From TrEMBL:
Residues given in the record as Mg(2+) binding sites: E122, N124, E346
Function per UniProt: Catalyzes the production of glutathione from gamma-glutamylcysteine and glycine in an ATP-dependent manner. Glutathione (gamma-glutamylcysteinylglycine, GSH) is the most abundant intracellular thiol in living aerobic cells and is required for numerous processes including the protection of cells against oxidative damage, amino acid transport, the detoxification of foreign compounds, the maintenance of protein sulfhydryl groups in a reduced state and acts as a cofactor for a number of enzymes. Participates in ophthalmate biosynthesis in hepatocytes.
Stated name of the protein: Glutathione synthetase
UniProt organism field: Loxia leucoptera (White-winged crossbill)
Entry keyword set: ATP-binding, Glutathione biosynthesis, Ligase, Magnesium, Metal-binding, Nucleotide-binding
Amino acid sequence: VDAALLAGVLMRTGEQPNASDVVNYAPFTLLPSAVPRALFEQAYAVQQDFNLLVDAVSQNKEFLEQTLASTIKVDDFTARLFRIYMQVLEEGLAQTVVLGINRSDYMFDCGLDGTAALRQIEINTIAASFGGLTSRTADVHRLVLKVLGKSEEASQLLPNNPAKGLALGIAKAWELYGSQRAVVMFLVEEVQRNIFDQRCVENELWNRNIRVVRKRFQDVFEQGSLDASRRLYMDGQEVAVVYYREGYMPQIYNEQNWEARLLLERSRAVKCPDIATQLAGTKKVQQELSRPGTLEKLLPGHPEAIARIRATFAGLYSLDEGEEGDRIAATAIADPDHFVLKPQREGGGNNLYGEELREVLEKIKDSPERTSYILMDKIKPQPALNYLLRAHSPLQASKCISELGIFGVYVRQGQELVLNQAPGHLLRTKAIEHADGGVAAGVAVLDTPYLV
Ligand code: ADP
Ligand code: MG
């Protein structure tokens, strides 16, 4: 724990989430977890393809419209985002520079013969976090291995600094915006426990002499304005880039915050992500991407990228009204342990499994509400023993499974992709008792891959 504090693996406390007088360590594993080298390399090798794909989806109005048509009839949150999307398209985009920061998450599915396969869980196109803290955890694990007399193994832990690469993307977008005076605005939460993760990215920007301000939606509502050419000002200070670390959960939006979101989207500031890219990250889009022929339409002339992308897909199923949806709903009700039921939500704790999945699906199977969900094959990784360190919790060995995330960053100016990178990774590990949830949700903890 001292090593973690020393390395900066930090989080504010639940009691005082908005003050740094007292802080604690962010939860982490005692030991690094084994990750198959081939799958780790496969995940890195496909990341630039995923960047291309997300960017292509975000520019394809027809695809987004068709894909989300049934969802927005029943899911108010997606509908509201979609309305802003249509509104800004009608008005015409004020900015041709696009900055994407995402994280594609995977688990290692264990087949009947014991071999593991890389399976994408989801791609996060807004507020993908832990690119900062993860850069600090390898130092802790290196020390632990040394203390255990395993210095050879310690030397094999990979360097990893996603925050630096994310900041590089933000800096590029800031530069293309073209105003020395303008600032980068981090759009942050009301409750800021994970501030140190964000500070890692922020510091990289200050190191490049780029000014950063931290504001909430409420601040934007109170201080934000656009000039005649839709330049965004916060109390007179011009904003070049808006980096959202908030905005993906319906609960945080009151009417004022929706108004603030619309103002940001209409503005000339580079949005990371813009509203189209946020929509490209919905579970419904993920499910439609897995339909035969869809990738070919979205990425014409990229057969190799398509093959790499498709190789990571798990089984995904539409619950839209009709025969196809009826059939898969019946299959999942009969065999719920092979599926995950997912609504259009982010942030952990929203998916349904097992008996709960069966109950909910039974209830909604003949109603339009069904279409606000998708079904996915449940991934079953091989568990391994580890110790999860969490403040004020007893230390005990747990059976754990891990989720690997690869960060992606890209910048497009008009039709030209000027930056496309995979700047680092994140490994999160949780005890197998928990079906769902990430680090922020208090379920998973930070880990470091040990390649085998
Ligand atoms: P969120 O947007 O809430 O993060 P995810 O799709 O990432 O939604 O699901 C949350 C968590 O649920 C994941 O981190 C993973 O632990 C678990 N999970 C999601 N999909 C699957 C799946 N197909 N098989 C097994 N576990 C899954
Ligand atoms: Mg997730």
